[in-house]
Amino acid sequence: MTNVLKIAVGSIVVGLVVLALKLLAWWLTGSVALLSDALESTVNVATAIAALIAIRVAARPADAGHPYGHHKAEFFSAVLEGVMIILAALLIMREAWLGFRNPPELDTPFTGMAINALAGVMNALWCRVLILRGGKLKSPALVADGRHLLTDVITSAAVLLGVALAVVTGWTVLDPLLAGLVGLNILWSGWKLTASSLSGLMDEAVSDETLDLIRAVISDRATGAIEAHDLRTRHAGRVTFIDFHLVVNGQTTVDEAHGICDRIEQSLHAKLPEAQITIHVEPEHMAKHSGVLVL
């Protein structure tokens, strides 16, 4: 089992434990705000399962039907997660409206808050693991799951503060009011996650920082060539696709041109291990005098 899959399985286990704790906190208190927090955790579990499936599909090698691999499967998972976050937000806002019309009396609030706080701490620790490890492993599904958990952590903290204020002041209407604000925050988070994931499905280019790195490697390692132009990039999960035209002197032999290409590819792979690189070699009269000038 790969590191990515192990983390994905861990997300399901952590999600189930946190969900159980939050449901217990809601059952003890009857708080609409704590119920909204628990509803979001049900989405955490569902999306963790979706992420696991997507990661397993993305890890499949290329085949005749998918010659470029299955890497985009993780983007589909991230989009699904965004949609489910939005659905959870709408459910939370519905519960908030019902609670606002008939504010509930809170039972054993401090016990419930303590249990909910424990769940929040677990989420915070796992959120850090997902974002840091997911970024290092270039897994959009894990990073998306981590960002979702981050909103859950912020939500839990806000919920605990709101419930505490409701108990101290006796204003029970604060409980459903806070749940509604939580729903709006989650709705915005889900929209941002969906939009960013869709950009990956649309073959979005790599970041400016990564593009500058690619240009620098080509310029440094393409000794013997004249220029590189029509550089194109896109990313799909952990894989970065790079293709460009490399202009060489008309007297350069095939063997020499191949050696230049090998040198560039090796250096790019050292910086971007999962990169898939395509280089089209052209004679000097095809030069455009733009892009990466080697000489």
UniProtKB/TrEMBL annotation:
It is found in: Cell membrane. Signal peptide: none annotated. The keyword Ligase does not apply. It holds the Pfam family Cation_efflux. Residues 11-202 form the Cation efflux protein transmembrane domain. GO terms for cellular component: plasma membrane. GO terms for biological process: intracellular zinc ion homeostasis. One of its GO terms (molecular function) is ferrous iron transmembrane transporter activity. It is a multi-pass membrane protein. Belongs to the cation diffusion facilitator (CDF) transporter (TC 2.A.4) family. This is Protein p34. It comes from Paracoccus methylarcula.
